[in-house]
Design goal:
449 residues, alpha/beta, 8-stranded mixed sheet, 45% helix, elongated
């Protein structure tokens, strides 16, 4: 509940002017910056107390008596608090030196708390589903555009972490991110582990030998064991090659049991995805420079993933399991997912790191050209009337579902914020006011300006 009052303070829904426990008018000039560590809840807040400007920290509690229950009265780090904002003013509070702290009560209409309770307790993960249609389309579009950028930035940060972990090797980073993308969510983690376990320089040494590339990849994936009763000649050949190559390069395979097969069609088994990864390494892995070519549009980028399985994998789903009527190429929807989850984020991360914002913008433009994803999250949004139309919006809706709805962060969602504002009759045009740089304020312990 304290989080709700922190939200009220930050958003100033209660209005700009309050009255403290002594009847003195309090004007909130700047609520300050929320502190996510120890210490007062808001840093560098600016208020006017009886017309006098003050700057300092603000502490928020549901009940004023929580000040003593939390031990703030004996903690010098709370002596900088210039205002105590509470839901219930059940007592006055003092600093460690005994001085009284100004205190205000944050009161809101009952409808506000009923709306908040609805957002917190509704049985659906999308708790605002019943009223989402009432939000104007422009407000929906603005929030989704921000969410799509937020998701792209999150993916970019992840890619840059991988980049640094490879010793700043973009090609190795590209190889790892391609492998993860080929896991298509379900097997993303083991695919990334596989790519990390196998340096590209090793694969480059055998780039002209497809069988040895497969031996390295399947062996590192712990899918080769000559003691198993698989009498397939090709399987046994891969086993022998991997034993030799693993000893030569000092390789250690992943631990068994990482791969998931639940609700996976045979043509999407990890074996076939690894076979596609092996195709990407034939002739030497050099995908990074090609996907970074800013002149390549969607069609040209799709062509980069037009690998075609042949030989053994033309007739098998996995080792010793023959395939019938299976496609030898990635489907159009699978390639779209690679463009969404690997190509666009790689372009964005590279552009941001190099300060090439044109390339970063092109990565967002690419999402606008791609079709929306089709998955359970999108079907849920479609069911309540919020359709994607393209990958830019579907990525935004996935971000909204996972980072806000599932995490119950309605207070940080623009939809939730709008509904709470409307519950108390605050128009959308009513913004928050800040303190101008030229305005003089007090610091705790200073004189009047």
């Amino acid at each position: 509940m304290e989080q709700l009052y922190q939200y009220l303070w930050k958003s100033r829904m209660f209005g700009r002017r309050l009255v403290d426990s002594d009847g003195i008018e309090v004007e909130v000039v700047d609520p300050g910056r929320l502190n996510t560590d120890s210490g007062p809840d808001f840093f560098n807040s600016k208020i006017k107390l009886g017309g006098t400007g003050w700057a300092g920290n603000v502490e928020i509690h549901v009940k004023a008596s929580d000040w003593y229950r939390h031990g703030h009265d004996s903690d010098p780090s709370y002596d900088s608090v210039i205002l105590h904002a509470v839901g219930v003013s059940d007592r006055r509070v003092r600093r460690s030196d005994g001085t009284l702290i100004p205190q205000v009560e944050l009161t809101m209409p009952e409808k506000f708390f009923l709306t908040y309770d609805m957002l917190q307790t509704a049985p659906s993960d999308i708790r605002c589903a019943s009223v989402l249609r009432d939000i104007p389309p422009l407000a929906v579009t603005d929030w989704l555009e921000s969410l799509s950028t937020e998701r792209m930035q999150r993916k970019s940060e992840r890619i840059l972490e991988v980049y640094r972990s490879t010793g700043c090797d973009w090609e190795q980073t590209c190889f790892i991110m391609l492998a993860r993308a080929l896991g298509f969510g379900l097997n993303g983690d083991p695919f990334e582990m596989l790519a990390r376990s196998l340096p590209l320089r090793v694969l480059h040494h055998h780039s002209d030998n497809p069988m040895q590339i497969q031996a390295l990849l399947f062996g590192q994936a712990s899918m080769l064991d000559s003691s198993l009763h698989i009498f397939d000649d090709y399987y046994q050949l891969l086993c022998r090659e991997y034993v030799f190559l693993a000893r030569k390069y000092g390789l250690r395979p992943l631990r068994p049991g990482l791969w998931k097969y639940a609700r996976t069609r045979p043509q999407n088994f990890p074996h076939r995805r690894i076979a596609f990864l092996a195709k990407a390494c034939e002739g030497g892995f050099s995908l990074f420079s090609r996907i970074m070519d800013p002149s390549k549009r969607e069609r040209e980028l799709r062509d980069l993933f037009g690998w075609e399985l042949e030989g053994y994998w033309h007739t098998h789903f996995s080792f010793d399991v023959e395939a019938r009527s299976v496609s030898d190429t990635l489907s159009a929807s699978s390639i779209s997912l690679l463009l969404i989850n690997m190509v666009a984020p790689m372009r964005y991360a590279y552009g941001v790191l190099r300060g090439d914002m044109d390339l970063a913008e092109k990565s967002l433009d690419l999402l606008c050209e791609l079709p929306a994803e089709s998955n359970s999250i999108m079907r849920e949004w479609n069911g309540i009337g919020l359709n994607a139309g393209n990958a830019m919006r579907s990525q935004a809706l996935i971000q909204l579902r996972r980072e806000y709805c599932e995490a119950r962060k309605c207070l940080y969602c623009r939809f939730g914020h709008r509904l709470l504002r409307y519950s108390v009759g605050i128009p959308e045009s009513a913004g928050t006011l800040g303190l101008s740089a030229a305005e003089d304020v007090h610091r705790v312990g200073t004189g009047i300006s």
